[in-house]
Amino acid sequence: MKLNRIINDPNLVVEDAIEGYVAAHPEFFSKTNHERVLKYPSIPQQGKVGIVTGGGSGHEPAFLGYVGKNMVDAVAIGEIFSSPTAGAFLDAMKAADGGAGVACLYGNYAGDNMNVKMAVKKAAAAGITVKTVVANDDVASAPITEKEKRRGVAGEILMWKVGGAAAAAGYDLDGVIAAAQKAIDNCRSIGVGLSSCIIPAVGHPNFNIDNGMMEVGIGHHGEPGINVVPLQPAKEMAATMLEPILTEGIFEAGSEVVVLVSGLGATPTMELYIYYAEVDRILKEKGVKVHRSYVGNYFTSLEMMGVTLSMMKLDDELKKLVDAPVHSLGMVQG
Amino acid sequence: MKLNRIINDPNLVVEDAIEGYVAAHPEFFSKTNHERVLKYPSIPQQGKVGIVTGGGSGHEPAFLGYVGKNMVDAVAIGEIFSSPTAGAFLDAMKAADGGAGVACLYGNYAGDNMNVKMAVKKAAAAGITVKTVVANDDVASAPITEKEKRRGVAGEILMWKVGGAAAAAGYDLDGVIAAAQKAIDNCRSIGVGLSSCIIPAVGHPNFNIDNGMMEVGIGHHGEPGINVVPLQPAKEMAATMLEPILTEGIFEAGSEVVVLVSGLGATPTMELYIYYAEVDRILKEKGVKVHRSYVGNYFTSLEMMGVTLSMMKLDDELKKLVDAPVHSLGMVQG
Amino acid sequence: MSEVVVIKNGVDVVNDLINVIVSNRDYLSEIDGAIGDGDHGINMAKGFNICKTRIDGKELTLSEALAELSDSLMEGIGGSMGPLYGCIFTGWSDSIQGKTELTKEDVQAMLVNGMSELQDISPAQKGDKCLVDTLFPAVETFQQAVKDGKTFKEALNIMKDAAAKGRDSTKDLVAKIGRASRLGERSKGVLDAGATSCCLLVTQLADSLEARIK
Amino acid sequence: MSEVVVIKNGVDVVNDLINVIVSNRDYLSEIDGAIGDGDHGINMAKGFNICKTRIDGKELTLSEALAELSDSLMEGIGGSMGPLYGCIFTGWSDSIQGKTELTKEDVQAMLVNGMSELQDISPAQKGDKCLVDTLFPAVETFQQAVKDGKTFKEALNIMKDAAAKGRDSTKDLVAKIGRASRLGERSKGVLDAGATSCCLLVTQLADSLEARIK
Ligand SMILES: Nc1ncnc2c1ncn2[C@@H]1O[C@H](COP(=O)(O)OP(=O)(O)O)[C@@H](O)[C@H]1O
Ligand SMILES: Nc1ncnc2c1ncn2[C@@H]1O[C@H](COP(=O)(O)OP(=O)(O)O)[C@@H](O)[C@H]1O
Ligand SMILES: [Mg+2]
Ligand SMILES: [Mg+2]
Ligand SMILES: [Mg+2]
Ligand SMILES: [Mg+2]
User: Fold this and answer.
1) Which ligand places an atom closest to the C-alpha of C192?
2) How many domains does chain C have?
3) What is the full per-residue pLDDT of chain D (214 aa) written as tens digits?
4) What's the pTM?
5) B220 is a catalytic site residue
6) Given A133, B17, B228, C193, which residue has the most CB atoms within 10 angstroms?
7) Beta-strand pair A256-263/A289-296
8) Are residues A61 and B271, on separate chains, in Cβ contact within 8 Å?
């Protein structure tokens, strides 16, 4: 069975894709002297806190697609579904540093944790202050009592949005970190997987979802979820996914939220909207007010079918930061 | 075999998706009294030429995703892969008319041709002047000698972009029509399909591409192409697709072009960039200058795998119109 | 002695047409799948079912019932079938307004008018591999049969034969119109979906009329 | 009489390690596929192959060759394996700098240092179902064997046994660390991929050293 995908050498998909990104979007991406680090062209900006992220490839537009004006300044790019190296994180930090320190906002995975930790140490040795926020918005990955074990998923986008806007607004490093931390603390996510995906270098699916079934709580790399159940209509699926998010009690009636619905890659866009309509309906019933919604392929997993739901509760500060303009491949806002 | 997708009633996917679009994006969509017509909220704008399009569903963000500021004013929405009704086109025309006439910019399919024709007649009876441009950018669908038979594909987006910008710039109806016509006349497209898709109401793929094969020149509804050949690496695929586009002779060395690469739905975004890198390389070799490039899921076919390539040759007028700001779900620009 | 078809309730005749389409939904889609996009049965059944909800339980003349069918297609489904069949049924409806009894000549006028309404909107010719390959021979043979002085029943049966032959003729044709036309030579070897649905409809119309000859 | 391992060219020993990983690429990914994301063999083989291109044909001390291996992983692959094995090999490399002959005590120091470098970066404990379940028992039994006065060869074999037992012990464990930890009870019943690659490496190291005992 041949892999029916659009690639050259399956071992060089990341390199090849980076070439394309840089060729297509010089307005967003400058190369650095690390081939796995891209930066926003006008970075570093003196006096502005630098925003760095990084993560495995295959989640496009995450992570590099959120490099842009008022969002991420530099990104470290890993292999498919695998953390970037410590060296890449370090060079991204160096690229983003404008003298006001660097906020490294990334997701809670063992590899990323270790590589960022090593990079932060080396950055300190090079005179760059780096502080971190680790996204852990995925309610399916551990109980609330072990929140530090939860994965970071599409909520990371809202963390970058808020952190990037704070940095652009002139917050200092501690301020940016506090805002980004609040964003992710106020955020809850969950995913549902309907089909698997194939890493080109592997050549076959590394997990399986039986036809007619769905995996509730699936991770962005196919990590198994809470439960495998028969496929539900969009209406029930929305309820199933909202349940563990709403039980945590932070989205009470009257609260204002941002909702982000992302496809996992192969789900037709119109279905994300069919799904969103059901989420919207339930939230209205519960008296939760949607201040802003994002629906689309914001954080994917190659060609998996499925959907993730993220919600962030707003206060006045977060609302201002979420509403601020942004200009990146993955998110553009007036 | 169950359909592993995110829907409620397979016969109501269009209705359900429209609900979601309107709920998620009140800034882009207002309902009209025709349930299959959506319009930009501040439309009609007195004195501005109205821009209308319409087409089958399943191509999201096309068609409705290009409703927005400086692009499409009102859209008629069809069943999956099927033309909207004449009544829907008519009501979209009525919604978009601000007294300066309406440009209906749509794609060359039998159904759309007939329904638009009927709608134009009825609009005239209602005192609304409508002129049309029929996109026929797909080089694979007929030889250049029978250009009037060619399908409209992703080049339509550039036609809307140009037409929408012209209307926003105050062009009169004939001017808008001339600009949009020039855009599509200067445009050539071709698609390659790697896998099929399933219309929910049908429940099984209505065509088949063998694993390890690709269909060169496939249509947006799975219409068979020119040739079924063994799957090529991205590099060769780019050459294979550029060949029939470049032989038509309009993109000579020194010309400036817009390149639009769209995924067909399920192709991972990073692969669109792997592909773009190869296109970019070949165009550089040929001395064709890429003025602007769009890479992403701009015009899809449910969950088909594959890619389409569109190129539009620029003159000063088209360049100005393509570069103009735009704000829609599918395309946002400065 | 001139035979007439007596139509007490036009809804019954149109319901016959609806039933033949709805019960062939999957078959028509399957045919369309070979060289089209596989939705012909879906499109047709959707439109015809819309008509069903609009006319069920009503008492209408055949003209009124056909107008409902036309509107259901034109406003309900769009695509190509909306305008194409919509125009045919508009043509049928328009030429028999107010009538509850139809002569051979009435039916002939009705068929001819449907054909000409269709021609207003579609440039399709016989041999293009589309519903015209069924419809035109059916209409023309009925005309000829009337001219030749055949009985109503004979004329209807001659028309049914012609429709079936027309449908079958599409098998060896290269499509010149519609989605399948992009296929060139590859479109040969299978029936055309529209020609097939048109044959079902013409045949059913003939049967429903024949059953009501007084 | 104290036995020593004589290492003419450290590249040969590291090449042994590279070969055992590269030839088990698919096997390791398959194991990872059961409860992880199916890429362990790919990640490891990629990093080890990078090292191969960097050291092939060179003459290096074992310390230098291990430093190359560590850098190749840390800078070449990232993920978890970059830092984890990178730290282990840094630990090994650092403690035998400049040496071309290794005593039991040298090897013991090397193994212990690798373990402590790993502990700097990972909180993993025995029983967590990860490479630690292989590495720690291997190191500890080697220490004990040296303390008990076993021969170099005996100590290496005791270590190999402990590594294999450690690897096998992961089968019945519930993962507490890494991607598989999200699985809870569902992670039981299969080997851990990292524990398996670690067993391959420790075993190969032992074999490569044993072959050079003088
Ligand atoms: N211009 C036309 N005139 C007459 N019949 C046509 C024309 N275009 C298409 N057809 C008929 O339409 C049929 C396909 O209908 P359908 O599948 O419902 O629509 P679509 O092709 O839009 O999916 C074809 O089999 C052909 O008979
Ligand atoms: N924090 C950790 N400490 C020690 N070993 C770990 C840790 N996290 C993961 N591992 C090991 O890593 C292995 C998986 O490696 P690999 O598949 O290459 O990385 P990834 O999980 O990022 O895909 C697991 O089998 C486990 O043995
Ligand atoms: Mg991995
Ligand atoms: Mg169709
Ligand atoms: Mg069809
Ligand atoms: Mg893994």
Assistant:
1) 1
2) 1
3) 478 999 999 999 999 999 999 999 999 999 998 888 788 998 999 999 999 999 999 999 999 999 999 999 999 989 999 999 999 999 999 999 999 999 999 999 999 999 999 999 999 999 999 999 999 999 999 999 999 999 999 999 999 999 999 999 999 999 988 778 777 888 899 999 999 999 999 999 999 999 999 9
4) 0.93
5) no
6) C193
7) parallel
8) no
List chain B residues with CB under 8 Å of C192: none
CB contact under 8 Å between A206 and D37, yes or no, is yes
Domain that holds residue D179: 5-210
The enclosing domain of C122 has a CATH number of 1.25.40.340
The owner of tokens 């890198």 is B277
Residue C68, SS3 per DSSP:
helix
Question: What structural domains and CATH numbers belong to chain A?
Answer: 11-185 (3.40.50.10440), 187-333 (3.30.1180.20)
Instruction: Quote the Cα angle for A41-A42-A44, to 5°.
Output: 110
- Residue pair B102/B132 in contact (Cβ under 8 Å)? The answer is no
C177 reaches B (C-beta below 8 A): yes
Q: Is the CB of C177 under 6 A from ligand 1?
A: yes
Catalytic residue flag (residue A291) = no
ipTM: 0.90
What's the length of chain D? Answer: 214
Q: A1 and B211: CB-CB below 8 Å?
A: yes
- Closest to B120 in 3D by CA, of B107, B129, B108: B129
* Residues in chain C closer than 8 A to B199 (CB atoms): 38-39, 42
